[in-house]
Design brief:
Blueprint (H helix, E strand, L loop, with lengths): L3 E2 L1 E4 L3 H12 L4 E4 L7 H5 L6 E4 L7 E2 L7 H6 L2 H10 L4 E3 L4 E4 L4 H13 L3 E3 L4 E7 L2 E6 L2 E5 L2 E3 L14 H8 L4 E7 L3 E2 L15 E8 L9 E10 L2 E3 L1 H7 L8 E4 L2 H7 L3 H6 L8 H6 L4 H10 L12 H12 L1 E3 L3 E2 L7 E6 L17 E3 L7 E2 L4 H16 L1
Parallel strand pairs: 1-11, 2-3, 2-12, 3-8, 12-22
Antiparallel strand pairs: 4-7, 5-23, 6-7, 9-10, 10-11, 13-21, 14-20, 15-16, 15-18, 16-17, 18-19
Helix pairs in contact: 1-5, 1-13
The chain binds flavin-adenine dinucleotide.
Flavin-adenine dinucleotide (FAD) binds next to helix 1, helix 2 and helix 13.
Protein name: Aminoacetone oxidase family FAD-binding enzyme
Keywords: FAD, Flavoprotein
Organism: Polynucleobacter paneuropaeus
Length: 405
């Protein structure tokens, strides 16, 4: 058996590399093992190749977990501003895109190189591709059996991420190890994922593919795993249904069989203090057609499609019955549609569920029942909203663990 390590980190992605660099610089002897040919692949493809590496406004409210309080300690000890300082210290150019989301100006590769540089500073040893065959606890040490031999360590950190994008090496290994040590795992399911729709739930909007507009979207309910949500985001109409940030956010809270609800006027109301009732009851609108009235607050094509759907296309407002006006109002402020499913792990950005936080110490990420065994990053039942929060969790949980190992 070779060197005794302070910690062996399994998985050299966002959380694993960051944790390794921090712990290494605290003079810990750190070995990172990864089965992939190339490390940091999820970082490379993130944010459309520009990596939305954190969110300036990241707070516990941006995370889903069976225990929403679990993230508080780690996020408080390593907030977004600390990662931003690190990025600045490497001279990496970045910009804010939307609601505090920070992206690299050039490429996600900048973040990957920074993480490697931090590991080099901490004299971290990185080995890949290496297969991890088994992990066992033997007389106070952890023994990791790999395709290149046995390694012994004081601690093992599971940082193998979640199940999305199997094509680039995602596995359930962290969850398998959790189960091996009798830790509860919250059933994983795809998150931040496009939803699919049956043709008939959507037929009247099919011709509008390509249209994008800000809406208010809500999904889930109080009794669901992660409760209910309401977001104001951009919605994209596609040939297959609905997509864009609004749907990705809603997907985290959506349960099969339930509907999602869209207020197409969300942004209008917020922007101008818009009052739907006033528009619908205004005497001056009597002689205008239904679609003209709708088009004053909606894109013209959408206004026409809604008027058509309620059989009032071309009709003067004065001729539209109270009942039909009410139906139109419902349609544009509380449109309900039942997704048929999600596009699954291939298209998901994150995994919901994972190692149950009640098994872990929120200060250190260590399994309470197995001293020396840690879980960080996406494999834990902590999922961020869209917008850089998932990387912020990888950094914060990696930092907490690095202080402890
Ligand atoms: C397309 C896409 C875009 C995204 N964009 C963003 C974004 O812009 N902003 C954001 O905040 N989040 C984004 N995310 C989510 C983000 O990438 C993840 O939340 C983050 O990478 C999780 O970090 P991690 O270290 O836990 O896992 P990963 O970064 O996935 O790292 C896991 C590592 O473990 C290795 N591994 C897996 N199984 C084994 C095994 N059995 N043995 C050894 N090694 C193993 C893998 O090879 C990998 O290197 C995106 C995700 C996707 C899929």
């Amino acid at each position: 058996m070779s060197t005794q390590w302070d910690a062996i980190i399994i998985g050299g992605g966002a959380a694993g590399l960051f944790c390794a660099g921090v712990a290494g610089q605290l003079n810990k002897r750190i070995l990172v093992l990864d089965h992939a040919e190339v490390l940091g692949e999820k970082i490379r493809i993130s944010g459309g190749g520009r990596c939305n590496f954190t969110n300036q406004h990241s707070s516990p409210a941006n995370f889903l977990s069976l225990n929403p309080h679990f993230v508080k300690s780690a996020l408080a000890r390593y907030p977004a501003k600390d990662f931003i300082k690190l990025v600045q210290s490497y001279g990496i150019a970045y910009h804010e895109k939307h609601q505090g989301q920070l992206f690299c100006d050039h490429s996600a590769q900048d973040i990957i190189q920074m993480l490697f540089a931090e590991c080099t500073k901490g004299k971290v040893e990185i080995r890949n591709p290496v297969s991890v065959l088994s992990i066992a606890q033997e007389s106070g040490s952890w023994v990791v059996n790999t395709s290149t031999g046995l390694e012994k360590s004081k601690a093992v950190v599971m940082a193998t991420g979640g199940l999305p994008v199997p094509a680039i090496g995602a596995t359930a290994y962290a969850l398998d190890i959790a189960k091996q040590f009798n830790l509860n795992v919250v059933e994983p399911r795809p998150g931040l994922v496009p939803l699919s729709f049956t043709a008939d739930s959507f037929h009247h909007l099919n011709e509008l593919a390509g249209l994008s507009l800000p809406v208010r979207i809500s999904s889930g309910s109080k009794g669901d795993r992660y409760g209910a949500c309401r977001f104001q985001e951009d919605l994209l109409l596609t040939h297959k249904g609905l997509s864009g940030p609004a749907v990705l956010q809603a997907s985290n809270y959506w349960t099969e069989g339930e509907g999602i609800h869209i207020d197409w006027l969300g942004s209008v109301e917020v922007a101008g203090g818009f009052n739907c009732d006033a528009l619908f009851n205004d005497e001056e609108n009597r002689l205008k057609t239904a679609e003209t009235i709708l088009a004053s607050v909606l894109p013209q094509r959408l206004a026409k499609a809604f008027a058509e759907q309620k059989n009032v296309l071309g009709r003067k407002w004065a001729e539209v019955s109270k009942k039909d006006r009410h139906a139109l109002k419902e349609l544009i402020t509380n449109w309900s549609v039942k997704p048929a499913g999600t596009l699954g792990w291939k298209k998901a950005e994150v995994m919901l569920g994972g190692v149950d936080t009640k098994e872990l110490d929120g200060q250190t990420m260590m399994a309470k029942s197995h001293p020396g065994l840690y879980f960080i990053g996406e494999c834990v039942d902590v999922t961020g909203h869209l917008g850089g929060h998932n990387f912020q969790w990888a950094w914060a949980s990696g930092f907490a663990c690095a202080q402890a190992v």
